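Write out this protein's structure.
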Amino acid sequence: MEAPELLRLWVLAAVALGGSRAALPDHRVLPDDRVSSKTGAIFVHKLERELFQEAFLTGREDDGVATPITFQAHLRDHPDLPRWLRYIQRDPHQSGYLYGCPTATELGTHTIEVLAYNRHTYETVAQRLIVTVIPAPGGEPPYQGEFLVGNRNVEELLPVATRNIFLQATAGVWEWDDLHIINITSALDRGGRVPLPIEGRKEGVYVKVGSWGTFSPCLVAAASPESRFRCSLGQQPLASCYDTFAPHFTIRWCNLTLVSPTCPPPHPMKHPHPLLTITPLQLQVWPNPTTPGPVWGSGVLEEGGDFQPPTDAPPQDLLPGYLVTLLVPLAVAMLLCLLLGHLMCCRREGVQKRDLETSDIQLVHHTTIHSDTEELRHMASSRDGPRPLSTLPMFNVRTGQRINPMPTPSDGARVPLLPP
């Protein structure tokens, strides 16, 4: 394509794009929303549909039907969210959630840009969410337990009321009341399978709860090696306490994970649950040894430094590999050739053996066919010979008179084949 034609196409595309943008509804921007989050605790921010729906120019629901709204969120000047933050919206007619657990490396201010789309009118409303991550006053709790809730999806556990109900049920099993949720993760993010589209089937949610109080004997028994062995056999784990999660939450006790320090923490213990009495029990979990990772440099050589290329690889003896690669296929090919030659040359019956095993009638029949074939070939080679008897007509095609196909010599000379 020539340059003038390409330039003309670019100009037309720019004009068409400008016209389409002018036809779109106006883009509105809501005031910034500033929130704070602590390290070691769950952060949940609900994207209210009603707030963005009122900001649209159309503004209201039509005939009582909720307007489908889709949210998109990303870190400012980045295409995706921070690694500690996740987004979930199950349906365009439901609100969206931003949730996650910031760590000590995430301290500071994070600006999240949220864009809401009206799926009917294609209007857009933007809002900036400014999240300030501050360190927790007492640090992360030393005792942490992770529960797998099998009958819930992740967005069902994010509302504040549901989280409070879960903490109350956890306090009945943990036997301490200073609990708080550290993180909530969907089972799909942990390698779980998508459930079948059957009513009542849920994805499952991992809920990590932390406390300054030690684990109860019930939790220790549920996470003991005996319980793990029973779970491997398909049996229920050991649990001596009453399951206070039922009937709201179905806990998969075989997936219970407990993490505790090797020594008691210096933080003062709070009072236990007022309605329960416990026996203090320390659960020691040895930390897994960690392999130090590589230390990344700046990527720039220091002043006066020389680049040291990697040393050459030591010479290797490639002869054995070459011989194996070359000789093994040749040996296999030779064996196949010998086998094929034996079958084709050494296993033949021969004409004499075949004739001895064949009956005399079949041999005579075969000889007759062979002699007739030779006769036909000889007659075809010389066209001057007499016509074969099988080709003579038996009747006159005009008069219908029948004629002897094998007349006597006297009759054959007098009777014409076709009357005049």
